UniProtKB/TrEMBL annotation:
<feature type="binding site">
    <location>
        <position position="159"/>
    </location>
    <ligand>
        <name>ATP</name>
    </ligand>
</feature>
<dbReference type="Pfam" id="PF03481">
    <property type="entry name" value="Sua5_C"/>
</dbReference>
<feature type="region of interest" description="Disordered">
    <location>
        <begin position="242"/>
        <end position="271"/>
    </location>
</feature>
<feature type="binding site">
    <location>
        <position position="41"/>
    </location>
    <ligand>
        <name>L-threonine</name>
    </ligand>
</feature>
<dbReference type="GO" id="GO:0008033">
    <property type="term" value="P:tRNA processing"/>
</dbReference>
<dbReference type="GO" id="GO:0000049">
    <property type="term" value="F:tRNA binding"/>
</dbReference>
<dbReference type="InterPro" id="IPR006070">
    <property type="entry name" value="Sua5-like_dom"/>
</dbReference>
<dbReference type="Pfam" id="PF01300">
    <property type="entry name" value="Sua5_yciO_yrdC"/>
</dbReference>
<dbReference type="InterPro" id="IPR017945">
    <property type="entry name" value="DHBP_synth_RibB-like_a/b_dom"/>
</dbReference>
<feature type="binding site">
    <location>
        <position position="203"/>
    </location>
    <ligand>
        <name>ATP</name>
    </ligand>
</feature>
<feature type="binding site">
    <location>
        <position position="125"/>
    </location>
    <ligand>
        <name>ATP</name>
    </ligand>
</feature>
<keyword id="KW-0963">Cytoplasm</keyword>
<dbReference type="GO" id="GO:0003725">
    <property type="term" value="F:double-stranded RNA binding"/>
</dbReference>
<feature type="binding site">
    <location>
        <position position="149"/>
    </location>
    <ligand>
        <name>L-threonine</name>
    </ligand>
</feature>
<dbReference type="InterPro" id="IPR005145">
    <property type="entry name" value="Sua5_C"/>
</dbReference>
<feature type="domain" description="YrdC-like">
    <location>
        <begin position="19"/>
        <end position="207"/>
    </location>
</feature>
<keyword id="KW-0547">Nucleotide-binding</keyword>
Amino acid sequence: MNVWRVHVDADGNMDEAAQAAIADAAACLRAGGVIAFPTETVYGLGANAWDDAAARKVFQAKGRPADNPLIVHIADMDMLGMVTCPDALPEPARRAMAALWPGPLTVIVPAGPRIAATVRAGLPTVGVRLPDHPVARALIRAAGCPVAAPSANRSGRPSPTDAAAVLADLAGRIDGVVDGGPCQVGVESTVVAFTAERGVIYRPGGVTREALMAASGVPVDWHGHLLRPDAGLAAAMMQSDIEGEPPGVPRAERHAASGAPDLGPPPSPGMKYRHYAPDADVHVFVGPNGRVLAAMRAWLATLRARHPEDTVAVIAERTEGLAQAGVLAWSPPPGTPYTEALAREIYRLLRAFEAQGARHILVQGVAPDGLGAAVMNRLAKAASGRVHLV
Ligand code: TXA
Ligand code: MG
């Protein structure tokens, strides 16, 4: 298995050694190999999207259910025609791509004839994304084909945001990894589908709902599945009533969503799987700062009475009163907004705390607007719905 270390300077430029490494990795992709590579969101596990056998290797390496389709990545707008028929796309989809690519946005489009059936999981559609990362784009450009790439973790594990996390899950199961350093966004892309009149978000991610509406010129809704009580958003939205700031979904709709109507099968297969789960049990606390800290302290005291030996990790904007023996604490560096720092670090923290033997991980939730929607969605999944409103 190859590990190609590539250095990218602050302007996104690569030296000759990096370019040679990328050429090597691209040759491996063209020959049907599976290669992990960095994007601005998380590391992806790539295969030629036109090669069914290569795509099957991705599912195998990850242990991914065969009905969960892969996202296809392109290096430039010129490559869109390799994935779908660009002229047939609804206007709002085209406007969103033009404004928000390269970036953490995946648009569901009708699949072109060459996209392998395994990549689509048999669906007539495919998710396409133009990532904002010089290594990803150079690799795809050199490969000369669209690159199907889910996150480069074992299925059910937190997504990898550096090459070490990829190797921890997949060493020996893939042909190589291009190590381009840590990812900047830290949560996966937003997955959206458009008609001529509106958009529906299947997965909140690095591009906000607000940005999608501004770019596409049409209303963009959360898919109903994201508003179910266990999906994180609904809980955080209800709670944000207390703080007075109404989030993007009308109050009536939020409350209706919490009644969990029968929504039928999820249109985006990934919605139904429990993702991003570390071995420790995760608890998310949502509410005003002081109340969250108090609730965490109380939770800890109760645990200590029963299991004094358990290691606990705490992730919060501030961790006053929580530093004690057996507690690993993280808060963002001074001056860094909590939501952005949490997005960037959450998967790394889940893995690191688990490796340090944490049995329980307590996390302060965030307001579900902007990037916060993606963070709350991932936290609620990692917590399997253990979201405490305080
Ligand atoms: O940021 C990202 O999107 C990363 C990097 C590597 O680009 N990739 C990623 O891929 O997160 P993955 O496979 O872990 O997530 C793909 C999501 C799944 O929830 C899947 O169900 C959904 O996109 N998806 C893919 N194709 C779809 C389709 N045709 N229709 C509906 N949902 C689709
Ligand atoms: Mg994934």
